[in-house]
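Form P-L/3: holo structure prediction, ligand glutamine.
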Amino acid sequence: MKSAGMHHASGRLARALVALSLVTAVVAPSAGAQRLSARSPRPNEPSAEDIQRVVDQAYARFKNLKEGKNADYIPALAKVDPDLFGIALVTPDGRTYTAGNNTTEVSIQSISKVFTMARVLQDSGGKVFIDNTGVDATGREFNSIVAIEDKKGHEMNPLVNAGAITTTALVGGGSASAVWQNIADTYDGYAGRHLTVLEDVYKSEAETNQRNRAIAMLMYAYGHFKGDPLQATDIYTRQCSVGVTAKDLAMMAATLANGGTNPVTRKRMLDAQHVPQLLSVMATAGLYDDSGIWLFNTGLPAKSGVGGGLIAVSPGKWGVAVVSPPLDKAGNSVRAQRAIEYISSVLGGNPLAAGGEPMSASGRK
Ligand code: GLN
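OUTPUT (holo model):
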């Protein structure tokens, strides 16, 4: 009797707990969301006016900076206007702040690698990268063949060409057109609009991408490759030629800053558990062999492309992007680095600084 009674009592308790957890599960998110939207900014949290002012200041400060040179190993990139300069920042509530040119598209180039990695992370999880591409900085240029030889194709990462082309080969779909559609839909989802390929850039790079074909073949020879290396290189070349504005790139970055959900369309692109995995590779390898100095200066996971784009993510706070084609010796946009460093330092975006620094006085001027 006694034990039956206890059983009965614990059954009631269990039912009560289940009911309670159901109520919490249903109520908590919306209550949390209401609290978030209703709360006023914390003392050091920048207001919308503050953010717009900082973005405008960054534009004015670096508008006349003429250092660097367009990439020219892809002939079409040499022809892009070096004065093109656009800045955009998007916050998790979907507010967008812009300065300069946010209508002219450049090719996304290596920034695409982040979002192809995101596709594979979402579909296959993090382990495939440990098994197939590695997740370590190579300490060499993005298209290094020596790095592949050195470690027999191990210890690469999805953001250098060897790992990126391997990652493209891991995208599901089967046929070349299905894989491409999968990639294109993914980029569209992050950007929140339909993006198109800049065909002149694609054609120009496809005619001159012998080195990337060699890289893919070498990765294949070392057994790191699923599928046809030349087909993957062609799809990779196409993904690098997708046209984006600074605003598109900022939306893509903001989707990552927002835990994997596009802040405007509210479409979930990446499960929250995978976002830190993606950001960690951006932090260690996003700016080629200058990734260390960039992280040292800003603490921001970021990714550059030879088209002149640069994205950076301050998790929970904002995604920012700059487009400006002239690059430094490491292959990173000069103005983009300076503008993002400036914006982040004023807004307190460094995720490695405890609690973020307060807004500096310069931002209040
Ligand atoms: N499509 C370019 C290449 O593979 C991308 C390189 C880059 O942006 N670093 O060479």
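COMMENT: The first strand starts at residue 86 and ends at 90.
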